[in-house]
Design goal:
Elements lengths: L2 H4 L10 H35 L4 H6 L15 H7 L2 H34 L5 H10 L5 H15 L5 H24 L4 H9 L4 H12 L1 H16 L3 H6 L7 H9 L6 H21 L1 H14 L1
Helix pairs in contact: 2-14, 4-14, 5-8, 5-11, 5-13, 6-8, 8-11, 9-10, 11-14, 11-15, 13-14
Length: 297
């Protein structure tokens, strides 16, 4: 039984002083804990950023926090070296070529499939949706060897399209499940009204379902983008030296740690900051999608 239920209000209708103090202290403690967690989470990121602005001599000679007392240590020379490193720039471009098509492909295909599962009545729909849900429990590691053998015969092994197709294939089950549940919550009256106006399924999908489902679609795009951008296992298996993304390149650079810290530190921060920019750019849609999903639940 909570404190507010036990404590009776005073004559003016307000809770007793003890109840008000307990409520304020509880809120202050929670906020302090959340602030502490946020600071602890940001410390490694801040350390990486400061290290990326220091020379290798300064990094090996003292901790990154000494840069606050000696600002002269900070320089952009590491980023200049990074942008002149052909391997890092090629891997960054490969990451973009993998992440963008994999994200767009999953969003488009999952949106079409989710609309079909939610609002188009066809034979075997429920059983097919159950099969899609069953694919959610299949781990990525199970498919690595079979897909690698298939890629060998189709000449996709070591290519960017091969990595993209793998990400699309394993991203679709969750994407369809997420969007189908959201699309199913759209009022049927809206779709029936559009059909009465002569709208085809494609028109209804494009002009009614997609605008209403944009929060869920944006949330899915963020999830997919972050997963593909930060992936290393799939790229490590299916890419080669000319098509490997930034995560694999950084892993290779780690083997020479100490002699190339001026490339490794800014490269790692660049790999971190781009997903953060994408997340905060679409944060409004992401929160709307989560709120809408909780309300429908």
């Amino acid at each position: 039984m909570s404190l507010l239920r036990v404590a009776k209000p005073t004559g003016d209708g307000r809770p007793p002083l003890a109840a008000r103090l307990a409520s304020r202290l509880a809120g202050g403690v929670v906020q302090a804990l959340l602030l502490l967690v946020g600071v602890l989470w940001l410390v490694p990121t801040l350390g990486l950023f400061v290290s990326s602005l220091r020379t290798p001599v300064d990094i090996s000679g003292s901790g990154w926090w000494t840069a606050f007392t000696h600002p002269s240590q900070l320089t952009l020379s590491d980023y200049v070296n990074l942008f002149h490193d052909q391997g890092m720039m090629q891997s960054l471009w490969n990451t973009v070529l993998i992440t963008v098509p994999a994200t767009v492909g999953v969003v488009v295909l999952a949106s079409l499939a989710a609309y079909a599962f939610a609002w188009i009545d066809f034979r075997g729909r429920d059983w097919l949706f159950v099969a899609v849900i069953g694919l959610l429990v299949v781990p990525v590691q199970v498919a690595l060897i079979p897909v690698a053998k298939m890629y060998k015969y189709t000449h996709l092994f070591g290519s960017i399209p091969g990595v993209v197709l793998f990400h699309i294939g394993f991203g679709l089950p969750f994407a369809i499940f997420l969007l189908r549940n959201f699309f199913a919550g759209i009022p049927r009256e809206l779709l029936e009204a559009a059909r009465m106006e002569g709208g085809t399924e494609w028109v209804i999908f494009r002009k009614v379902v997609v605008p209403l489902g944009m929060p869920a679609i944006a949330s899915l795009a963020i999830f997919q983008f972050l997963w593909v951008w930060n992936d290393m296992l799939v790229a490590l298996v299916f890419s080669d030296t000319s098509t490997q993304p930034l995560t694999v390149e950084l892993q290779g650079q780690m083997r020479q740690f100490g002699s190339n810290i001026d490339i490794l530190a800014p490269g790692a921060f660049l790999s971190l900051v781009i997903p953060l920019i994408v997340f905060f750019s679409f944060q409004r849609y992401f929160v709307q999608g989560l709120m809408a999903g909780s309300m429908k639940g």
